[in-house]
Write a structure and sequence with these properties.
The protein is an alpha+beta fold and 471 residues long. It has two domains: 99 residues, Ubiquitin-like (UB roll) (Roll); 343 residues, Creatine Kinase, Chain A, domain 2 (2-Layer Sandwich). Strands 8, 11, 12, 13, 14, 15, 16, 17, 18 and 19 form a ten-stranded mixed beta sheet that branches. β9 and β10 form a beta hairpin. α7 packs across α11 and α11 packs antiparallel against α13. The chain is globular, with a radius of gyration of 23 Å. 45% of the residues are buried.
Length: 471
């Protein structure tokens, strides 16, 4: 929005802006913020940054937890959820020492390092991505993990047909795909989300109700630069949750919030450009995908199990990655096939020719996820990993319908978070190339998600009462 401090100071004065809200990212990808009076945004702040204590952000310990935040004025936008005129700004984080170097665990620094590594190896100039955001809105949510009560309870007007004061317009289980009003009760909500996204310079491609009957929705955005797209992913989640709150609803990106309903993924469309042209398109090849693109897919497929620990970092993620709900389980690629982990959209033509990675979900830290995907793809290009050499496709059939004998020839995604963690422990060298990911960061990441898995595995499940109470 702004090129320099003079431009933003003039805007602050003209529009009577009262506060500057700095947006920061913690290890897990949660948005945090730090706010200063607008009058304090000076040349000195741009030069020296804003100091803060990062000890509660989840990162691996460094010698000093004091960090400095440097605003990136190009990311500035009017904050839509503040009562007083406020500008929100993303930025970068450095370690406070005599060298003042970028903090190598900070998510924005990691993705910038990944893009620099791509450029230094003369593979491409740009990575272009377009995520699809699936999420669920609920009218009422409660949950408990106390010793005497492990439960959650969800209420959705869309499916509560037995309510005495209901309106009679209710969705069926798995019957929500593109359903219209009056059953689609979140139509105006999605319109407002997309309107506010535009205020943050995020262009929606379209939105609609998804398959899940109880308020499962999707918003797809136009493809763009990977660094901006990572910022946008954080802001889209922020907008979706805050607008839901204004509608007296709650929005969640949990991959599987409801049993026996479709789960929420974050499919990522991607392509690489060099000198302004796609290097993924080559007419006459399979689905018009270039050899370079095939190698890029090969790298992702080779490392997909370890990628899951970054792109699907919760125990709940693997409740989505099961057959029967259009979620991928098989390691492979195909055209217009939603049962393989890589899908090539048949409608994408010429310079828009691309592929879609279907396993990620929005509980990931998008900066780490997009960086890891890029690093896996680069490894595939550098080592000329052709998917056909590993029986990874093309699978132009419904993989869920194969016989047991045919399925035995396939390889599959991890079945749970522990399997993904084990894969990342064994397979992570490709992430360390070019010092994009640090060993400290990967060790901290593994420890954090492993702690989640260990703790959740200890909690009794309501289904265990149903099955075992009377044994």
């Amino acid at each position: 929005m702004f090129k320099n401090i003079k431009e933003i100071q003039e805007y602050i004065k003209k529009e009577n802006i009262k506060f500057i809200d700095f947006k920061l990212i913690d290890l897990r990808g949660r948005l945090r913020h730090l706010t200063i009076p607008a009058s304090r945004l000076t040349k000195e702040v741009m030069k020296d940054g804003i100091g803060f204590d990062a000890s509660n952000y989840g990162y691996a310990k460094v010698e000093k937890s004091d960090m400095v935040f440097y605003p990136d004025l190009s990311t500035a936008h009017i904050e839509q959820f503040a009562e007083l005129p406020t500008i929100s700004i993303f930025g970068d984080v450095h370690v406070i020492d005599e060298k003042n170097v970028p903090f190598d665990q900070y998510p924005r620094n990691v993705i910038k390092a990944a893009v620099d590594y791509m450029k230094e190896n003369k593979i491409a100039d740009e990575m272009i991505v377009g995520p699809e955001y699936e999420f669920t809105v609920m009218d009422k949510v409660s949950y408990s993990t106390s010793p005497k009560n492990v439960s959650f309870n969800v209420y959705s007007e869309e499916t509560s047909s037995e309510e005495p004061d209901g309106d009679g317009y209710h969705n069926n289980k798995k019957g929500g795909y593109h359903i219209d009003q009056p059953i689609d009760k979140a139509f105006n909500y999605r319109n407002e989300v997309c309107f506010l996204m535009d205020e943050y310079d995020i262009q929606a491609k379209y939105h609609h109700h998804e398959v899940g009957g109880s308020g499962q929705l999707e918003i797809e955005v136009e493809m763009g630069d990977v660094i901006k797209s990572a910022d946008d992913t954080i802001m889209i989640k922020y907008i979706i949750k805050n607008v839901a709150n204004e509608y007296h609803m709650s929005a969640t990106f949990m991959p599987k919030p409801l049993y026996d309903e479709a789960g929420n993924g974050m499919h990522v469309h991607m392509l690489l450009k060099k000198n302004g042209k796609s290097i993924f398109y080559e007419k006459g090849k399979y689905s018009n995908l270039s050899t370079t693109c095939m190698y890029f897919m090969g790298g992702i497929l080779k490392h997909i199990k370890s990628l899951c620990a970054i792109c699907n970092p919760t125990t709940n993620s693997y409740k989505r990655l099961v057959p029967g709900f259009e979620a991928p389980t098989t390691i492979g690629y195909a055209t217009a096939n939603r049962s393989s982990v890589i899908r090539i959209p048949s409608y994408a033509k010429m310079e828009n020719t691309r592929f879609e990675l279907r396993n990620p979900d929005a509980t990931c830290n998008p900066y780490y996820a997009y960086s890891a995907i890029l690093m896996a793809g680069i490894d595939g290009i550098k080592n000329k990993i052709d998917p056909k050499d590993y029986n990874w496709g093309p699978f132009d059939c419904n993989l869920f319908d194969l016989s047991a004998k045919e399925k035995a020839k396939l390889d599959f995604l991890p079945k749970n978070l522990d399997e993904a963690i084990d894969a990342l422990k064994k397979d992570h060298q490709y992430l360390l190339e070019g010092n994009v990911f640090s060993k400290d960061l990967l060790e901290r990441w593994i420890n954090i998600i492993k702690k989640d898995s260990d703790e959740i595995n200890k909690i009794p499940h309501p289904a265990e009462y149903e099955r075992y109470f009377d044994l």
